[in-house]
Design brief:
The chain is mainly α. It has four helices and no strands. It starts with a helix and ends with a helix.
Length: about 100
Amino acid sequence: MKYRSVLLWGCISAVGFGPAAIAAVGVDSLKNLYGYVTIGVMGICILLSGSLVNGDRLRANYHAEDAEARRKRNGFIGKLLVFASPYALIAAGLYAFA
């Protein structure tokens, strides 16, 4: 799946998430829900990327993993971040203007 289609699915899900969240919890906590989704996806990306380990473990993991698996993992992480970007933009807009 290309990044453009991932962004499209992210936009569609972010727009569809709004009315469902309003029906479930109301307008007041809508900006919090968008923020939670954004922080959750970014947390998953941080865990998958290995950013929370020290240098020795990062170096050992780098040499234990082949280049193809690393490319796939990094592509998946990038697509997750692109998917979460509409949620982050909506959350930032709601925090700024609501």
